[in-house]
From TrEMBL:
This is aldehyde dehydrogenase (NAD(+)). It comes from Fodinibius salsisoli. PROSITE patterns: ALDEHYDE_DEHYDR_GLU. CDD domains: ALDH_F7_AASADH. The active site is at E261. Keywords: NAD, Oxidoreductase. Residues 27-489 form the Aldehyde dehydrogenase domain. SUPFAM superfamilies: ALDH-like. Homotetramer. Belongs to the aldehyde dehydrogenase family. Its EC number is 1.2.1.3.
Amino acid sequence: MEFLKKLGIEGTNLGTSTGQKFIGSGAKETISSHTPIDGSQIADTTVTTREEYDQVVNTALEAFEEWRMTPAPKRGEIVRQIGLELREHKEYLGRLVTYEMGKIYQEGLGEVQEMIDICDFAVGQSRMLYGKTMPSERPRHRMYEQWHPLGITGIISAFNFPVAVYSWNAMIAAVAGNVMIWKGSEKTPLCSIAVQNIIAKVLKRNDLPEGIFNLVTGGREVGEWMTEDERLPLISATGSIRMGKEVAKTVAGRLGKTILELGGNNAIIVSKDADLEMAARAIAFGAVGTCGQRCTSTRRLIIHKEVFNPLKERLVEIYKEVNIGNPLKEDTLVGPLIDQQAIDNMQNALQEVQDEGGEVIYGGEVLENKQLDGGHYVRPAIVTAQNDWDIVQEETFAPILYLTQYSDLDEAISLHNGVKQGLSSSIFTLNIREGETFLSARGSDCGIANVNVGTSGAEIGGAFGGEKETGGGRESGSDAWKAYMRRQTNTINWGSEMPLAQGIEFDV
Ligand code: UN1
C-alpha cells in the first residue's frame, strides 16, 4: 500500500526510537497491528525492553543538556519545520490514522490538521514564554519570574487520537525546552512510528542530537516504567479514569507532576428555545463521529420536555441516513469500533440500560459486513434512560446516546453536572439568559462549555481538559504551556545596601 511505503512503515518491525534512529533489533516481544476495517494484520512492531528504555532515558537526558540551552525561538523553528513536514504528509498520515484506528478519512485528515495547527501555535508560543515583572518592596531591587524547562516529559496517549494528542503535548513541551518520551497506544503503534519518521526527517536535516523526540512501544509495563521513573518529572497521560488514577497515585508518590486528560461523560442540554435543526446536526456529529470514541463524544442529551419528541424523531431520521462501513470510503460517516472488546462493552452497556428500564429507540446492533469481514461495525444507538442509572454514569467508549427529559433549567443543569466526569458540555438555546446561566459559576462544571456548539471537535487554541474525574489537566492552547515548565522567581539587588524584605532589621 502506497501510504504505508511513503510513511516508512511497510513491513516494519520497529518500535523504539531516540529520534532519528530506531534502536534495538532481534527476536523479542512484538505487537501486531491490525486494522479494525477488516481485521487484517498490517505489520508487527517491537516492544521496548527495559534495557532499551534505559538507553532512551539516558539519551534523552543527554539531549536535554543541549536542547534546554537552545534559544526558545530556535526550538520553535524546529517545530515550524515539523509543521511543514506534516503538511507534506497530511494525506498519507490521515489515511494511516483511518486504516489503523478506524475513524473516517475526513476525521483522519482533521487529526493531522490538529497536529499542524498546534505546530503553528507552538511556533508563536516559542517567542511568548512570558514571565511577569513585579515591583520589589526593596530599593534598587528588581524582581521577576522566568520559566524554565522541566526535563523529560513522558507522554502516554490513547488509541482514539493516535497522533493529535501526542502533538498537543510534544510540540508545546518541545518549544518549552523539554525532551519527550512518547508511549502511544499499543492499539495504534504504526501511527506512532509514522509520526516518529516524519519528525526524524527534520531532526536529521538540522543535525540535532539523538534524544529530543523519543518513542517507546508497549503496554502497561512500559507505562509503569515511565510513571515510576524519577528521571521523568512530568507525565502527561490520556486515557481511562481507572488508568489515570493509577498514574496519579504513582507519580504523586514521587512528587512528580502530571497532566491528566481522562474520561468524559459529555452532555448537551437542548432547550425549548433551541434551533433544533442546528442542535440535531451537532448532536449527530458528537454522538456518532469517530464511532463514539472521542473523549468529547456526546453521550447524554438532556432535552426540554416540549421538544423531546420532535428532536428524538429528527435524530432517528438522521441516524437512519448515516452510512456505516469502510472509513476510507468517501460517503461513510461511521467506521468500525477499535476492537471486539469495544463491541462487547457496547453490547453489555445496552443490556444493562435495558435491564434498568431504558428503551433502545434506534440501533445498537452489531453489523455483519460481508465485504469487510473481520471488522468491528455497529449501528449507533439512541436510548431513553435516567441520568442516575449506573451505566449512564459511566463512559462507554461507543456510540450510545442516552436521552433524558427536563422541565426547568435548574433541573437540567443539576442533571448535567450529576456525573463524576467533567470534560465537555453544551447547551443549545437562543435564549441569552439560559446560555449565560449555563456558562456562569452555577452552570456547567466542565472544562469546556459551549453554547450552540456541540461537545466534540474543540479547536487547539483553547486549553483542553476537564474537571472532577476527568483529571484536571489542560493541554494544547491558551496558557497550557506553563504545565510543561517550572517557574522561578528571581530577585536582583543592584544597590550597595542589603535591605531585608518585610522591613526586618538584622544587624550583623
Ligand atoms: C480526545 O478524544 O482524546 O475536541 C481528544 C475534540 C478533538 C480532540 C479529542 N479536538 O473532539
